[in-house]
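Our consortium's second objective concerns turning raw sequence data into structural hypotheses that experimental partners can test. To show how far this objective has progressed, the report includes one record in full. It was chosen at random from the queue rather than selected for favorable results. The single chain below, 199 residues long, was entered without modification.
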Amino acid sequence: MTSPDPAASPVAPTASAWNVPNGLTVLRIIMVPLFLWLLLTQSGDSEPHRWWAAVVFAVASLTDWLDGELARRRELVTNFGKVADPIADKALMGSALIGLSSLGELPWWVTVVILVRELGITGLRFWVIRRGVIAASKGGKLKTMLQAIGLLLLILPLTGLLHSLGLWIMYAAVVVTVVTGIDYVFQALRLRRATGGGS
C-alpha cells in the first residue's frame, strides 16, 4: 500500500499518528523477523515451518492492504504512515526475496533487480518528500500484487507446476517492477522541477 496523492486527497488536519492503520504498519514490521526465522529454519522437518512462514507472510501482506483502506476511508493518512508504510512493505518483500534466494529457490538476479528498484524508489521518495508524495500508480499496485502472489507460492513447500508458476509470476513482476521504477523516476523529476527543486 502507498498513500494516495495528497493533491487529490489531502491529509486530514486532525489525523494523529496514533491510529489503527499505523499500528498495522508497525505490526507488519514486527512480523518480519518471525517470518524470516520460520522461512530459514531448516533443522529436521522444515515443511511445517514453511507453511507457518507462508501464513505469517500472507497475514503481513493483508495488513498492507488493510491499513491503506482504513487510512483512506477514515481520513487517517499521516506523514508517519507515508514514510513507515513503504519501509514496512520493503522490509517484508525484501526479507522474502533474500530468504528465498539464499535457499536457492529464487534466482539472485531477480532479487537484486527488485531490491535495487525498491531501494532506489525509496530514496526518490525521501528526495522529494518536502515537496510532495509520489502517488501510487496502477502499475505499482500490480507490481506489489504480482510480487506477493509469486513469493507466497515460492514460500509454500510446493513442487511441480505450482512452484514453477510462482517463478513465472516473479519474472512477470520483474518486468512490471522495472517499468514502474522508470515511471517513478520521471514523476520525481517532474515534481522537483514543478516545485523549483535543484539537484
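The partners drew two points from this record. Helices lie at 20-40, 47-73, 79-102, 108-128, 138-155, 161-194. Residues 32 and 108 are 20 Å apart (CA to CA). Both points have been shared with the crystallography group to help prioritize constructs.
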